[in-house]
Design brief:
The chain is an alpha/beta fold. Helices cover 38% and strands 22% of the residues. It folds into 2 domains: 9-125 and 306-317, ATPase, nucleotide binding domain (Nucleotidyltransferase, domain 5); 137-301, ATPase, nucleotide binding domain (Nucleotidyltransferase, domain 5, 2-Layer Sandwich), CATH 3.30.420.40. The strands form 3 sheets. The protein has a 5-stranded mixed beta sheet with strand order 3-2-1-4-8, with helices on both faces. It has a 5-stranded mixed beta sheet with strand order 11-10-9-12-13, with helices on both faces. Bound molecules: zinc ion.
Length: 324
């Protein structure tokens, strides 16, 4: 199937997020082709979403084939607790009704490609490692500061999955002993302080519980607080600075445990980098061992919300031998 010198093989990457479903062809170099995006509309239930997933997969496969690509397989990043080997989504807080869904078995009824399933946060960290800000590094950690806080760890070029595929949940590292309760069951998790929701919640607290004009949705709230901080609002600046301190506590733990070459920060809070990173860096330096804290690079993520499907495809590419 090889044309002279040029690899015409491609892998389909899928990001089945709580908000958007994205499907695209990804080359071995990590380039994105024929990106298809639609709203997930998870409320319509698993059956509806599965049907649209199949339609999208087959559609992108057909487009790629018509453009002269040989599609080698499809790899899906899905939020929640995933049983990779069995291809099962055990549960997913972002996809209502998804309990013990045999995703790969159901897809195989309609899709004849080899299929791979991975947790979406793991897929995103692999994306940044393979084709984003972590390119060329071998040990790195990704922290995604969005509505919640996602995380993932690459050690010596390998995704750290752990015994149950649950490794890398840095968002649920305890940073405050008697802190705010978290939906995970713990209290004082990083996510409660350094996520978009955490920052806007803290701003609301600092304003005595009422902030006229604040939008009603988590990520929009944080963007609103961000714009106030840009105008010099002292409480808004403080909310970001404090989020940075909690982030720094977590980064110090990461530095001491993993000794990464880079900690990469992504997610919707990223545009406020200069408002939270100085306090985060200072806190990390104060708490971590000096040598690994001085050597770690703190970098903004490069792939934005493409990291999930690029990384999912990258994980499948890793299993495919290079073209001879
Ligand atoms: Zn938690």
């Amino acid at each position: 199937m090889q044309s002279s010198g040029q690899d015409r093989r491609i892998v389909i990457g899928v990001d089945l997020g709580g908000t958007n479903l994205r499907i695209a062809g990804i080359t071995r170099e990590g380039d994105v082709l024929h990106l298809r995006r639609e709203e997930t509309r998870a409320d319509a239930g698993p059956k509806d979403l599965l049907e649209r997933l199949v339609t999208g997969l087959l559609g992108v496969e057909e487009e790629l084939t018509e453009s002269g690509w040989e599609v080698l397989g499809a790899s899906l990043g899905v939020p929640g607790v995933i049983s990779r080997r069995r291809g099962v989504v055990e549960s997913s807080p972002n996809l209502p009704g998804w309990k013990k869904i045999h995703l790969l078995r159901r897809l195989r009824r309609s899709v004849s490609l080899p299929l791979l399933l991975e947790n979406d946060a793991n897929a995103a960290v692999f994306g940044e490692y393979w084709a984003g800000a972590g390119k060329g590094k071998s040990t790195m950690v990704l922290l995604t500061l969005g509505t919640g806080v996602g995380g993932g760890i690459i050690i010596d070029g390998r995704l750290l999955r752990g015994a149950d595929g649950m490794a890398g949940e840095i968002g649920h590292l305890t940073v405050e002993r008697e802190g705010l309760p978290c939906p995970c069951g713990n209290r004082g998790c990083l996510e409660r302080y350094a996520s978009a929701r955490g920052i806007s919640g803290r701003y609301l607290d600092l304003c005595g519980g009422s902030a006229p004009g604040m939008p009603a949705e988590g990520s929009a709230e944080a963007a609103w607080v961000h714009s106030l901080a840009r105008e010099g609002d002292r409480m808004a600046l403080r909310a970001f600075r404090e989020a940075g301190i909690y982030l720094g506590i977590a980064m110090a733990a990461i530095v001491n445990i993993v000794n990464p070459e880079a900690i990469i920060i992504g997610g919707g809070v990223l545009p406020a980098w200069d408002l939270f990173m100085p306090s985060a860096r200072e806190e990390m330096m104060a708490r971590a061992f000096q040598a690994p804290a001085e050597s770690v690079e703190l970098l903004p993520a490069a792939l934005g919300d493409h990291a999930g499907f690029i990384g999912a495809a990258g994980l499948l590419w890793k299993e495919i031998p290079s073209a001879a």
